[in-house]
Amino acid sequence: MTEFKHFINGEYVASRSGKTFDNRCPVDNRLIGQVHEAGRDEVDAAVKAAKAALKGPWGQLTQAQRTALLHKVADRINERFDEFLEAECRDTGKPYSIASHIDIPRGAANFTAFAETLANHPTEGFRLDTPDGKGALNVGHRTPKGVIAVIAPWNLPLLLMTWKVGPALACGNTVVVKPSEETPATTTLLGEVMNECGVPPGVFNVVHGFGPDSAGEFLTSHPLVDAITFTGETRTGEAIMKAAAVGLRNISLECGGKNPGIVFADCDLEKAVEGTMRSAFVNCGQVCLGTERVYVERPIFDAFLARMKEEVAKLKLGRPQDPQANFGPLVSQEHRDKVLSYYRLAVEEGATVEIGGGIPDMGAELNDGAWVEPTIWTGLSDDARVIREEIFGPCCHIRPFDSEEEVIRLANDTDYGLAAAIWTESSSRAVRVAEQMEAGIVWVNSWFLRDLRTAFGGAKQSGIGREGGVHGLEFYTELKNICIKL
Ligand code: NAD
Ligand code: 6OD
């Protein structure tokens, strides 16, 4: 059993109140750890340590020194790869085969990519004509925003936390991270790495706990926090936005999605099936960019559905360590209850269950885990709740369409606007349709193909702001204009 403590000012500390909560493994629901729950005192200590560190040795580092330090952090994560992998898979139940390709390498790459991008970003300059003919020079100068609160979710714990900590530190800020209550392990482990690499105390802090009336709320409402970056549900984003309004703190919100996949009859069918399988079922469907609504042009509808069912039947459920396994449990019993409630609702709303729809029999040792069957539905109406609400599970609805105009309307008929995937061999159609998607990210003949230099974020209720590449600079730095009269 592991004890997860807060990481404040370079040291692991217990909650003064002694309050802890259980950490369970979703593979079999066994108790694997006790997590200390931060009260206002621990959050206050973490924020004050982060504030003080801005003025300490961290604040004196040159950009080159910071870049070198962040490379060291990435290298150390890679050196301790197996520990991170084991910790992440124990918390989430996801297969090693997935976490070793996605979660851990990206968890490290987030430090190097942003250190390099930001180190090589030019500043803006304008020469202004003045009446005396001598002119003036305007120079943009960026400074760190200050203390950044990072509120992270459980689906890709290390990846999505470092996706924010990487650019925050690259820009010279300090951070207080609140990982999800479901997945405390890799964020806690990162504290050790920071110390091993010589990152000064107070630069990276971690407080554990829940959202409302717990660490999340105490952190986002702390007056010394200068900006809040959040990934999670849209409703939580609304609560955080309200907290940030006090003191006019900046926010970056990466929230939910109900993403469409559009499969045109002129696609490469096998590519479309392979990509849609990943977008609906990888990480047990717990990816914000995942496809829960699939629209298929009528001439290939039957063939596409048949191939998807064949591929779903081949998914291999199993323990994280099983090299053959490519499908794990959901993150928790609580999330399973939510996903299963949608499985029941789909039937009540008139869906045909094409495959799945229930709980698999995993055998005596695993039956207490948060397992659900990968599921495909057809036959729902466009206003069904299952079509409109984010489920965040391994399931999708497949519906035929007859024209480009119709499918664009259907794809955009949602409160969300995170991502879309388009499958077609016609490049002009791909561009035409992509340009009309009301979404922050559109993939053509691919899905979750990431280039960290690009803008990432959602439209409509999927979020506010863009991170990635230099786009994060707007959030993670304060831009000052210096005007020099010549
Ligand atoms: P969640 O909103 O329940 O929790 C996210 C984090 O917010 C957790 O650390 C939680 O403790 C904290 N939190 C909850 N209430 C809070 C409050 N009032 N104040 C401060 N903190 C609070 O989300 P989740 O269930 O962990 O993650 C799944 C959701 O995240 C899905 O909706 C998914 O689409 C979304 N998501 C979005 C992206 C993206 O990039 N757009 C990426 C991953 C996940
Ligand atoms: O790849 C990323 O940078 C990113 N933010 C992915 C988000 C995945 C959502 O579950």
UniProtKB/TrEMBL annotation:
Domain of life, per lineage: Bacteria
Keyword NAD assigned: yes
- SUPFAM superfamilies to which the protein is assigned, alphabetical: ALDH-like
Chain ranges of the Aldehyde dehydrogenase domain: 12-482
What Pfam family is a match for this entry?
A: Aldedh
Instruction: List the catalytic residues.
Output: E254
A Gene Ontology molecular-function term?
Answer: oxidoreductase activity, acting on the aldehyde or oxo group of donors, NAD or NADP as acceptor
Q: Tell me the keywords, alphabetical order.
A: NAD, Oxidoreductase
What the record says about family reads: Belongs to the aldehyde dehydrogenase family.
Q: What is this protein called?
A: 2-hydroxymuconic semialdehyde dehydrogenase
What is the scientific name of the source organism?
Answer: Zobellella endophytica
